[in-house]
Design goal:
The protein is an alpha/beta fold and 399 residues long. The chain is 41% helix and 20% strand. Strands 1, 4, 5, 6, 7, 8, 9, 10, 11, 12 and 13 form an eleven-stranded mixed sheet that branches. A two-stranded antiparallel sheet has the order 2-3. The longest helix is centred in the first third of the chain and has 51 residues. The C terminus is likely disordered.
Protein backbone atom coordinates (compact mmCIF):
# COMPACT_ATOMS: atom_id res chain seq x y z
CA UNK A 1 0.00 0.00 0.00
CA UNK A 2 1.23 3.54 -0.62
CA UNK A 3 2.84 5.51 2.17
CA UNK A 4 0.72 8.53 3.09
CA UNK A 5 2.71 10.65 5.53
CA UNK A 6 -0.04 13.26 5.43
CA UNK A 7 -2.34 10.83 7.20
CA UNK A 8 -0.01 10.52 10.18
CA UNK A 9 -1.63 12.55 13.01
CA UNK A 10 -0.17 15.96 13.72
CA UNK A 11 2.07 16.67 16.70
CA UNK A 12 0.13 17.91 19.73
CA UNK A 13 1.39 21.35 20.85
CA UNK A 14 3.19 21.57 24.17
CA UNK A 15 0.81 21.83 27.11
CA UNK A 16 1.45 25.14 28.89
CA UNK A 17 1.72 25.38 32.66
CA UNK A 18 -0.99 27.27 34.55
CA UNK A 19 -0.39 31.04 34.39
CA UNK A 20 1.13 32.08 37.73
CA UNK A 21 -0.07 35.68 37.42
CA UNK A 22 -3.67 34.65 36.80
CA UNK A 23 -3.73 32.26 39.72
CA UNK A 24 -2.06 34.83 41.99
CA UNK A 25 -4.69 37.33 40.95
CA UNK A 26 -7.45 34.80 41.68
CA UNK A 27 -5.95 34.20 45.13
CA UNK A 28 -5.96 37.90 45.95
CA UNK A 29 -9.50 38.26 44.58
CA UNK A 30 -10.84 35.41 46.74
CA UNK A 31 -9.17 36.84 49.85
CA UNK A 32 -10.68 40.26 49.23
CA UNK A 33 -14.14 38.81 48.59
CA UNK A 34 -13.88 36.56 51.64
CA UNK A 35 -12.92 39.45 53.90
CA UNK A 36 -15.65 41.72 52.55
CA UNK A 37 -18.37 39.10 52.93
CA UNK A 38 -17.18 38.20 56.41
CA UNK A 39 -17.14 41.80 57.64
CA UNK A 40 -20.49 42.61 55.99
CA UNK A 41 -22.52 39.58 57.04
CA UNK A 42 -20.85 38.33 60.22
CA UNK A 43 -23.37 38.65 63.02
CA UNK A 44 -21.13 37.94 65.98
CA UNK A 45 -18.01 39.65 67.23
CA UNK A 46 -15.48 40.04 64.43
CA UNK A 47 -12.59 38.41 66.23
CA UNK A 48 -11.33 35.00 67.15
CA UNK A 49 -10.14 31.95 65.25
CA UNK A 50 -13.48 31.09 63.69
CA UNK A 51 -13.98 34.58 62.26
CA UNK A 52 -10.53 34.86 60.73
CA UNK A 53 -10.70 31.31 59.39
CA UNK A 54 -13.95 32.24 57.66
CA UNK A 55 -12.53 35.51 56.34
CA UNK A 56 -9.10 34.22 55.25
CA UNK A 57 -8.96 30.44 55.59
CA UNK A 58 -12.04 29.56 53.56
CA UNK A 59 -10.93 31.66 50.50
CA UNK A 60 -7.46 30.11 50.77
CA UNK A 61 -8.90 26.59 50.91
CA UNK A 62 -11.18 27.26 47.94
CA UNK A 63 -8.24 28.64 45.96
CA UNK A 64 -6.15 25.60 46.93
CA UNK A 65 -8.85 23.19 45.76
CA UNK A 66 -9.26 24.99 42.41
CA UNK A 67 -5.50 25.22 41.90
CA UNK A 68 -5.01 21.56 42.80
CA UNK A 69 -7.64 20.44 40.31
CA UNK A 70 -6.07 22.66 37.66
CA UNK A 71 -2.65 21.22 38.41
CA UNK A 72 -3.96 17.66 38.12
CA UNK A 73 -5.58 18.55 34.77
CA UNK A 74 -2.30 20.09 33.58
CA UNK A 75 -0.28 17.02 34.51
CA UNK A 76 -2.85 14.74 32.90
CA UNK A 77 -2.81 16.75 29.67
CA UNK A 78 0.99 16.82 29.74
CA UNK A 79 1.27 13.04 30.08
CA UNK A 80 -1.36 12.52 27.34
CA UNK A 81 0.41 14.93 24.95
CA UNK A 82 3.80 13.34 25.52
CA UNK A 83 2.36 9.87 25.00
CA UNK A 84 0.52 10.98 21.86
CA UNK A 85 3.63 12.59 20.37
CA UNK A 86 5.80 9.59 21.25
CA UNK A 87 3.38 7.22 19.49
CA UNK A 88 3.02 9.65 16.60
CA UNK A 89 6.81 9.92 16.17
CA UNK A 90 7.13 6.13 16.28
CA UNK A 91 4.45 5.82 13.56
CA UNK A 92 6.14 8.55 11.51
CA UNK A 93 9.50 6.78 11.67
CA UNK A 94 7.91 3.43 10.84
CA UNK A 95 6.23 4.93 7.78
CA UNK A 96 9.49 6.58 6.69
CA UNK A 97 11.30 3.24 6.96
CA UNK A 98 8.49 1.51 5.08
CA UNK A 99 8.66 4.17 2.40
CA UNK A 100 12.40 3.61 2.03
CA UNK A 101 12.01 -0.03 1.09
CA UNK A 102 13.44 -0.66 -2.35
CA UNK A 103 13.72 -3.27 -5.05
CA UNK A 104 17.12 -4.43 -6.20
CA UNK A 105 17.06 -4.39 -9.99
CA UNK A 106 19.33 -7.29 -10.90
CA UNK A 107 18.58 -7.54 -14.65
CA UNK A 108 16.55 -5.79 -17.30
CA UNK A 109 15.99 -5.90 -21.02
CA UNK A 110 14.04 -4.05 -23.68
CA UNK A 111 13.06 -4.64 -27.28
CA UNK A 112 12.31 -1.57 -29.36
CA UNK A 113 12.62 -0.50 -32.96
CA UNK A 114 16.38 -0.16 -32.39
CA UNK A 115 16.76 -3.77 -31.30
CA UNK A 116 17.07 -5.67 -28.04
CA UNK A 117 19.81 -3.70 -26.34
CA UNK A 118 19.08 -0.99 -23.76
CA UNK A 119 22.47 0.64 -24.29
CA UNK A 120 21.50 1.43 -27.90
CA UNK A 121 18.56 3.49 -26.68
CA UNK A 122 20.75 5.23 -24.12
CA UNK A 123 23.37 6.00 -26.77
CA UNK A 124 20.67 7.39 -29.07
CA UNK A 125 19.40 9.66 -26.30
CA UNK A 126 22.85 10.82 -25.26
CA UNK A 127 23.81 11.56 -28.87
CA UNK A 128 20.43 13.21 -29.61
CA UNK A 129 19.65 10.70 -32.35
CA UNK A 130 15.91 9.97 -32.15
CA UNK A 131 14.69 6.48 -32.96
CA UNK A 132 11.19 7.80 -33.56
CA UNK A 133 10.50 8.83 -37.16
CA UNK A 134 7.77 9.36 -39.70
CA UNK A 135 6.85 5.94 -41.06
CA UNK A 136 3.90 3.81 -42.03
CA UNK A 137 1.75 2.29 -39.35
CA UNK A 138 0.48 -1.26 -39.70
CA UNK A 139 -2.70 0.23 -41.12
CA UNK A 140 -0.79 2.21 -43.75
CA UNK A 141 -1.02 5.77 -42.35
CA UNK A 142 2.05 8.02 -42.19
CA UNK A 143 2.71 8.92 -38.54
CA UNK A 144 5.77 9.93 -36.56
CA UNK A 145 6.22 6.98 -34.23
CA UNK A 146 8.39 3.98 -33.46
CA UNK A 147 7.29 0.40 -33.96
CA UNK A 148 8.52 -3.10 -33.43
CA UNK A 149 9.57 -4.78 -36.61
CA UNK A 150 8.05 -8.07 -37.73
CA UNK A 151 4.70 -7.65 -36.00
CA UNK A 152 2.68 -7.05 -39.15
CA UNK A 153 1.68 -10.72 -39.36
CA UNK A 154 1.77 -13.70 -36.98
CA UNK A 155 2.06 -11.38 -34.00
CA UNK A 156 1.72 -14.19 -31.46
CA UNK A 157 4.73 -16.00 -32.94
CA UNK A 158 6.83 -12.85 -33.01
CA UNK A 159 5.74 -12.02 -29.47
CA UNK A 160 6.83 -15.46 -28.26
CA UNK A 161 10.24 -14.99 -29.88
CA UNK A 162 10.65 -11.60 -28.20
CA UNK A 163 9.80 -13.00 -24.76
CA UNK A 164 12.26 -15.86 -25.23
CA UNK A 165 14.96 -13.37 -26.25
CA UNK A 166 14.44 -11.35 -23.06
CA UNK A 167 14.35 -14.47 -20.86
CA UNK A 168 17.62 -15.64 -22.40
CA UNK A 169 19.26 -12.33 -21.42
CA UNK A 170 18.39 -12.74 -17.74
CA UNK A 171 19.04 -16.48 -17.37
CA UNK A 172 22.68 -16.06 -16.16
CA UNK A 173 21.52 -13.78 -13.34
CA UNK A 174 18.45 -15.86 -12.58
CA UNK A 175 20.67 -18.92 -12.13
CA UNK A 176 22.24 -17.22 -9.09
CA UNK A 177 18.90 -17.00 -7.29
CA UNK A 178 17.84 -19.95 -5.10
CA UNK A 179 15.21 -22.07 -6.81
CA UNK A 180 12.93 -22.13 -3.76
CA UNK A 181 12.50 -18.36 -3.52
CA UNK A 182 9.00 -16.91 -3.86
CA UNK A 183 8.48 -15.69 -7.44
CA UNK A 184 5.93 -13.07 -8.49
CA UNK A 185 4.95 -11.64 -11.87
CA UNK A 186 3.86 -8.13 -12.85
CA UNK A 187 2.26 -8.23 -16.29
CA UNK A 188 1.38 -5.10 -18.27
CA UNK A 189 0.18 -5.82 -21.79
CA UNK A 190 -1.52 -3.58 -24.32
CA UNK A 191 -1.51 -5.90 -27.29
CA UNK A 192 -4.79 -5.74 -29.24
CA UNK A 193 -3.41 -8.11 -31.88
CA UNK A 194 -2.40 -10.68 -29.23
CA UNK A 195 -5.38 -11.15 -26.90
CA UNK A 196 -3.76 -14.13 -25.15
CA UNK A 197 -0.42 -12.37 -24.49
CA UNK A 198 -0.47 -13.10 -20.74
CA UNK A 199 -1.03 -16.81 -21.27
CA UNK A 200 1.72 -16.99 -23.90
CA UNK A 201 4.17 -15.11 -21.69
CA UNK A 202 3.36 -17.21 -18.60
CA UNK A 203 3.91 -20.48 -20.45
CA UNK A 204 7.23 -19.28 -21.88
CA UNK A 205 8.46 -18.06 -18.51
CA UNK A 206 7.53 -21.37 -16.91
CA UNK A 207 9.20 -23.47 -19.61
CA UNK A 208 12.33 -21.34 -20.01
CA UNK A 209 13.08 -20.70 -16.33
CA UNK A 210 11.60 -23.79 -14.70
CA UNK A 211 10.09 -21.52 -12.03
CA UNK A 212 6.47 -20.84 -11.17
CA UNK A 213 5.63 -17.12 -11.13
CA UNK A 214 2.41 -16.07 -9.39
CA UNK A 215 0.67 -13.08 -10.97
CA UNK A 216 0.41 -10.02 -8.71
CA UNK A 217 -2.71 -7.91 -8.51
CA UNK A 218 -2.46 -4.49 -10.12
CA UNK A 219 -0.23 -3.12 -12.81
CA UNK A 220 2.94 -1.12 -13.20
CA UNK A 221 4.35 0.79 -10.28
CA UNK A 222 1.18 0.22 -8.27
CA UNK A 223 1.88 -3.53 -8.27
CA UNK A 224 5.53 -2.87 -7.40
CA UNK A 225 4.45 -0.64 -4.50
CA UNK A 226 2.22 -3.40 -3.11
CA UNK A 227 4.91 -6.04 -3.59
CA UNK A 228 7.37 -4.01 -1.51
CA UNK A 229 4.95 -4.23 1.41
CA UNK A 230 3.37 -7.64 1.05
CA UNK A 231 6.57 -9.55 0.27
CA UNK A 232 8.95 -7.71 2.58
CA UNK A 233 9.22 -10.26 5.38
CA UNK A 234 10.69 -13.00 3.19
CA UNK A 235 13.14 -12.95 0.27
CA UNK A 236 11.10 -12.58 -2.89
CA UNK A 237 11.72 -12.28 -6.62
CA UNK A 238 9.51 -10.32 -8.99
CA UNK A 239 9.59 -10.38 -12.76
CA UNK A 240 7.99 -7.40 -14.50
CA UNK A 241 7.02 -8.01 -18.11
CA UNK A 242 5.35 -5.38 -20.27
CA UNK A 243 4.44 -5.02 -23.93
CA UNK A 244 2.99 -2.10 -25.87
CA UNK A 245 2.18 -3.17 -29.44
CA UNK A 246 -0.21 -0.75 -31.10
CA UNK A 247 -2.45 -1.52 -34.05
CA UNK A 248 -2.86 2.17 -34.91
CA UNK A 249 -0.20 4.28 -33.17
CA UNK A 250 -0.79 8.00 -32.86
CA UNK A 251 1.59 10.90 -33.34
CA UNK A 252 4.54 10.66 -30.96
CA UNK A 253 3.76 7.15 -29.72
CA UNK A 254 6.05 4.15 -29.60
CA UNK A 255 6.21 0.42 -29.01
CA UNK A 256 8.36 -1.63 -26.67
CA UNK A 257 8.59 -4.92 -24.83
CA UNK A 258 10.40 -4.75 -21.50
CA UNK A 259 11.54 -7.08 -18.78
CA UNK A 260 12.82 -6.24 -15.30
CA UNK A 261 13.98 -8.76 -12.71
CA UNK A 262 14.00 -7.53 -9.10
CA UNK A 263 14.73 -8.82 -5.61
CA UNK A 264 13.65 -7.38 -2.27
CA UNK A 265 17.04 -8.28 -0.81
CA UNK A 266 20.60 -7.46 -1.74
CA UNK A 267 22.37 -10.37 -3.41
CA UNK A 268 26.14 -10.54 -2.74
CA UNK A 269 26.73 -12.34 -6.03
CA UNK A 270 25.20 -9.56 -8.14
CA UNK A 271 27.27 -6.42 -7.41
CA UNK A 272 26.00 -4.64 -10.52
CA UNK A 273 22.44 -4.46 -9.17
CA UNK A 274 20.93 -1.01 -8.65
CA UNK A 275 18.11 0.03 -6.36
CA UNK A 276 14.71 0.99 -7.68
CA UNK A 277 13.27 2.99 -4.83
CA UNK A 278 9.62 3.00 -3.84
CA UNK A 279 7.69 5.08 -6.41
CA UNK A 280 5.60 7.98 -5.13
CA UNK A 281 2.29 8.71 -6.83
CA UNK A 282 1.07 12.21 -7.59
CA UNK A 283 -2.09 12.82 -5.58
CA UNK A 284 -3.59 15.97 -7.14
CA UNK A 285 -1.74 18.15 -4.69
CA UNK A 286 1.65 19.21 -5.98
CA UNK A 287 4.33 17.71 -8.18
CA UNK A 288 6.85 19.48 -5.95
CA UNK A 289 5.59 17.57 -2.92
CA UNK A 290 5.53 14.28 -4.85
CA UNK A 291 9.17 14.76 -5.86
CA UNK A 292 10.05 15.70 -2.28
CA UNK A 293 8.59 12.45 -0.98
CA UNK A 294 10.35 10.44 -3.71
CA UNK A 295 13.66 11.96 -2.56
CA UNK A 296 12.89 10.88 1.01
CA UNK A 297 12.15 7.31 -0.12
CA UNK A 298 15.36 7.35 -2.19
CA UNK A 299 17.42 8.70 0.72
CA UNK A 300 18.83 11.31 -1.64
CA UNK A 301 19.81 14.89 -1.01
CA UNK A 302 19.11 17.28 -3.91
CA UNK A 303 22.83 17.48 -4.67
CA UNK A 304 23.11 13.72 -5.13
CA UNK A 305 20.63 13.60 -8.04
CA UNK A 306 22.68 13.60 -11.24
CA UNK A 307 19.96 13.19 -13.86
CA UNK A 308 16.23 12.86 -14.46
CA UNK A 309 14.12 11.06 -17.04
CA UNK A 310 10.55 11.82 -18.01
CA UNK A 311 7.90 10.16 -20.14
CA UNK A 312 4.24 10.91 -20.77
CA UNK A 313 2.54 12.85 -23.55
CA UNK A 314 0.97 15.55 -21.36
CA UNK A 315 3.64 15.52 -18.68
CA UNK A 316 6.45 16.21 -21.13
CA UNK A 317 4.72 19.26 -22.55
CA UNK A 318 4.41 21.23 -19.33
CA UNK A 319 6.97 23.10 -17.26
CA UNK A 320 5.74 21.85 -13.88
CA UNK A 321 8.53 19.29 -13.67
CA UNK A 322 11.16 22.00 -14.06
CA UNK A 323 9.46 24.00 -11.32
CA UNK A 324 9.31 20.95 -9.05
CA UNK A 325 13.04 20.35 -9.52
CA UNK A 326 13.84 23.99 -8.79
CA UNK A 327 11.68 24.10 -5.67
CA UNK A 328 13.34 20.92 -4.39
CA UNK A 329 16.74 22.50 -5.16
CA UNK A 330 17.89 19.81 -7.56
CA UNK A 331 21.11 21.05 -9.10
CA UNK A 332 20.31 19.76 -12.58
CA UNK A 333 20.99 21.39 -15.89
CA UNK A 334 17.58 20.83 -17.46
CA UNK A 335 18.95 21.28 -20.96
CA UNK A 336 21.48 18.46 -20.56
CA UNK A 337 20.74 16.36 -17.47
CA UNK A 338 16.99 15.96 -17.93
CA UNK A 339 15.89 13.78 -20.84
CA UNK A 340 12.41 13.26 -22.21
CA UNK A 341 12.38 9.67 -23.41
CA UNK A 342 9.36 10.30 -25.64
CA UNK A 343 11.39 12.65 -27.83
CA UNK A 344 13.61 9.75 -28.83
CA UNK A 345 11.44 6.65 -28.91
CA UNK A 346 7.89 7.91 -28.40
CA UNK A 347 5.50 7.33 -25.54
CA UNK A 348 5.38 3.57 -24.96
CA UNK A 349 2.20 3.31 -22.87
CA UNK A 350 2.25 0.48 -20.31
CA UNK A 351 5.93 -0.14 -21.08
CA UNK A 352 6.90 3.49 -20.41
CA UNK A 353 7.64 3.07 -16.65
CA UNK A 354 9.82 0.01 -17.16
CA UNK A 355 11.57 1.54 -20.17
CA UNK A 356 12.50 4.51 -17.97
CA UNK A 357 13.72 2.12 -15.27
CA UNK A 358 15.87 0.15 -17.73
CA UNK A 359 17.48 3.25 -19.25
CA UNK A 360 18.10 5.07 -15.97
CA UNK A 361 19.54 1.93 -14.35
CA UNK A 362 22.36 1.86 -16.89
CA UNK A 363 23.38 5.36 -15.81
CA UNK A 364 22.91 4.56 -12.12
CA UNK A 365 25.36 1.67 -12.38
CA UNK A 366 28.10 4.22 -12.99
CA UNK A 367 27.37 5.75 -9.59
CA UNK A 368 25.06 8.58 -10.64
CA UNK A 369 21.69 8.59 -8.88
CA UNK A 370 18.73 9.21 -11.19
CA UNK A 371 15.10 10.30 -10.83
CA UNK A 372 12.36 9.07 -13.18
CA UNK A 373 8.96 10.69 -13.65
CA UNK A 374 6.34 8.71 -15.55
CA UNK A 375 2.84 9.83 -16.53
CA UNK A 376 0.72 6.74 -17.12
CA UNK A 377 -2.54 8.68 -17.49
CA UNK A 378 -3.80 12.24 -17.14
CA UNK A 379 -2.66 13.45 -13.69
CA UNK A 380 -1.48 9.90 -12.95
CA UNK A 381 2.22 10.52 -12.38
CA UNK A 382 4.76 8.36 -10.58
CA UNK A 383 8.19 9.54 -9.43
CA UNK A 384 10.92 7.16 -8.28
CA UNK A 385 14.62 7.16 -7.61
CA UNK A 386 17.11 4.79 -9.21
CA UNK A 387 20.25 4.73 -7.11
CA UNK A 388 23.60 2.93 -7.30
CA UNK A 389 23.72 -0.47 -5.68
CA UNK A 390 25.61 0.55 -2.58
CA UNK A 391 24.77 -0.39 0.97
CA UNK A 392 23.07 2.84 2.05
CA UNK A 393 19.53 1.44 2.09
CA UNK A 394 17.65 -0.26 4.88
CA UNK A 395 19.58 -3.20 6.28
CA UNK A 396 18.23 -6.53 5.11
CA UNK A 397 19.29 -10.14 5.28
CA UNK A 398 21.01 -11.17 2.08
CA UNK A 399 19.95 -14.24 0.20
Amino acid sequence: MPVFLDEVPAVVPKVHRPDTRKWSGLFVFLLVVGCLLSFLFWTGTKEGLVFWFTALGVPFCLWGIFFGLRRIAYKTDQVWAESWNANRNALWNEEILRGQRSAWLIASGVITQSGSRTDKILSAIQSSSPIIQVQKTREGAQVRHSKLSGFEELQSTKFSEAIKTLITQIEPVLAKIPSDIICRLIADFNTPGIPDALQIASEIIQSETGRSFVLLDGNGFEALDNWLDNAWRKPSLVLSLSAEIRQAPGEGEGEAITLALMLNRKHPGIPEAVQLRRPEKYKNDSLTKTLSRALIWSQLSPEEVKGSWGTGLNFSQGGEWHSACEENKLSLNMAEEHKNIDDFIGYCGVSAPWLAVAISSLVARSGAAQIIAVETDTNDIWIAGVTPGDNTGIRQDTL
